[in-house]
Design goal:
This protein has 97 residues and is mainly α. 70% of the residues lie in helices and 0% in strands. It has 2 domains: 1-61, no CATH class; 64-97.
């Protein structure tokens, strides 16, 4: 069931309008954009992209943010403690009410 959900979600992201490469380098040349598509694997078939994504996901590699070039894992590690603290305070106040 989890595989079906990930497959559908991955597929829905591919149906979104626009090109991720154009967002990353909006004023790049056609050659630069094609090189980035190749680097990101966007020139590969859908099922190959999904397989690579799923393999990385299972290994705990969630990729990088394109804007900040930071690893998603790093961002999760820094924001998770703050989010958990906020959740605990919210639960505490919810119990008081």
């Amino acid at each position: 069931m989890v595989l079906v959900v990930t497959f559908i979600t991955f597929g829905l992201t591919k149906l979104q309008p626009g090109d991720p490469v154009s967002k990353i380098i909006p004023f790049g040349t056609a050659q630069q954009k094609e090189e980035l598509r190749t680097d990101l694997g966007l020139d590969r078939p859908f099922i190959a992209q999904y397989g690579k994504w799923l393999g990385n996901f299972v290994q705990g590699d969630f990729g990088k943010y394109y804007d900040s070039k930071q690893s998603v894992n790093t961002v999760i590690k820094t924001s998770l403690p703050v989010s958990l603290e906020l959740m605990l305070y919210a639960q505490f106040f919810a119990l008081l009410i």
